[in-house]
Amino acid sequence: MENEIQHHKCLIIGSGPAGYTAAVYAARANMHPVLFTGPEPGGQLMITTDVENYPGYPDGIMGPAMMDEFRKQAERFGTDVRYEMISKVDFSGPVHKVWTEAGQEIHADSVVISTGASAKWLGLESEKRLTNKGVSACAVCDGFFFKDMDVAVVGGGDTAAEEASYLAKLCPQVHLIVRRDEMRASKVMQDRVLNTKNITVHWNTTTEEILGEEEVEAVRVKNTITGDLSEIPVKGFFVAIGHKPNTAIFKDWIKLDDVGYITTVPGTSRTNIEGVFASGDAQDRIYRQAVTAAGTGCMAALDAERYLVEKGVV
Ligand code: NDP
After folding, report:
1. Residue 254 neighbours by CB distance under 10 Å
2. Residues near ligand 1 with C-beta < 6 Å?
3. Exactly one of 10, 109, 142, 171 is catalytic; which is it?
4. For position 2, what pLDDT does the model report?
5. Would residue 24 count as lying in a domain?
6. Does residue 232 fall inside a structural domain?
7. Checking DSSP bridges between strand 218-223 and strand 117-119, what pairing results, if any?
8. 209 vs 131, higher pLDDT
9. Rounded to the nearest whole angstrom, what is the distance from the C-alpha of residue 154 to the centroid of ligand 1?
10. Are 222 and 164 in the same domain?
11. pLDDT tens, residue by residue, 41-73
12. 304 and 230 in one domain?
């Protein structure tokens, strides 16, 4: 019956490298995991092109292809993958309760949180209004729409550098808007940006407004040293200023840090709630790599298994 409460030994929330790795380990440990993919099955790697730093892929692999492999491996051992979102949890008792967006209540002995992180936005009214009308947080997803047009990227980290380099292959001119006089990105990525002829870096520059009614026409920027305002004509505006952890639904139960990352007991995946474990970018504000996410997904499944054995559930 649709609304009958289900009970599972191990529930995994999220479907990036952390969630799928937890699923592989949990399934092989006979925990019969049920994995809820969330709104973006595959997580952030679905909006990445080449992944060149994941061990085992000497020639690199496309992010979506890699996540497909992760999912297949999890399913091969019996993970029940559900393309739904968990929208509410209640971790007040020994049995952990969650609800899907459709209202289905599910109980679990153990929960692995691997909900990852999402792109941050500048918070401008024009940014919101022009989203999908030229404003995007993903060059790889949307860059093609701006082929042969000038675009801007805002941000100074590896993501911004990567997006600018990607767009430079499609667009005649890429304007990289950096708010300080230096970039946070790794040296190799900075060098790539600075050595690409059609990328212009605008240092000490902030975005005041994105201009255009029905579509992006230009961006109004401010030089923070001189205070001068100017307009850069662009058709696409890509926001690449970092990410925030997807942990809002847990905040009433799980200890989070000041930014919202889940706090775990050092060296483990344990949270402040017994039987609830955290892995991947939802609990990692430092490394945030696919391989570290996978590693912590493994830790979470092993910690959950140990917990279930202690409780006599498996
Ligand atoms: P980061 O947090 O590293 O960088 C965010 C950037 O955006 C900073 O330059 C920051 O400026 C700037 N920024 C933040 N808020 C604003 C704002 N309101 N207006 C203008 N600029 C703003 O995020 P990333 O997404 O770039 O990277 C996250 C992690 O992922 C990093 O550890 C990175 O190394 C990694 N990564 C690795 C890749 C790779 O190896 N290929 C690719 C992509 C990411 P400021 O410096 O002044 O704070």
Report:
1. 22
2. 122, 154-160, 162, 179-180, 184, 241-243, 288
3. 142
4. 55
5. yes
6. yes
7. unpaired
8. 209
9. 10
10. yes
11. 999 888 766 788 899 999 999 999 999 999 999
12. no
Residue 1 placed within a domain? no
Kindly give the distance from the C-alpha atom of residue 182 to the centroid of ligand 1, in angstroms, as a whole number: 12
146 vs 150: CA distance, rounded Å: 7
CATH at 130: 3.50.50.60
* DSSP β-bridge partners for residue 207: 221
Cβ neighbours of residue 286 under 8 Å, at least 6 residues apart? none
Domain span including residue 261: 6-118+243-310
Count of the separate structural domains present in the chain: 2
Question: Which one of 135, 176, 179, 210 would you pick to mutate in the ligand 1 pocket, going by the greatest count of ligand atoms within 8 A of its CB?
Answer: 179
- Ligand 1: which of 57, 184, 223 to mutate, most ligand atoms within 8 Å of CB? 184
Compute the distance between CA of residue 72 and CA of residue 77 in angstroms, rounded to an integer.
9
Exposure string for 31-57, b = 16+ CB within 10 A, e = fewer: bebbbbbbebbbbbbbbbeebeebeee
Task: Check if 50 is active-site.
Answer: no
Catalytic site residue from 68, 90, 138, 158: 138
- Distance spanning both ends of the chain, measured CA to CA: 26
Domain boundary pick from 239, 267, 282? 239
- Mean pLDDT for all residues in the chain: 95
Q: Which tokens is 206 given?
A: 């902030």
Query: Is 130 in the same domain as 186?
Result: yes
* Residue whose CA lies nearest to ligand 1 atom number 31: 158
Percent of the chain with pLDDT over 70: 99
For tokens 């905040």, name the residue.
Answer: 251
Q: How far is the CA of 229 from the centre of ligand 1 (A)?
A: 24
Q: For 89-148, how does the pLDDT look when each residue is reduced to its tens digit (9 = 90+)?
A: 999 999 999 999 999 999 999 999 999 998 899 999 999 999 889 999 888 778 999 999
Q: Is 138 annotated in the active site?
A: yes
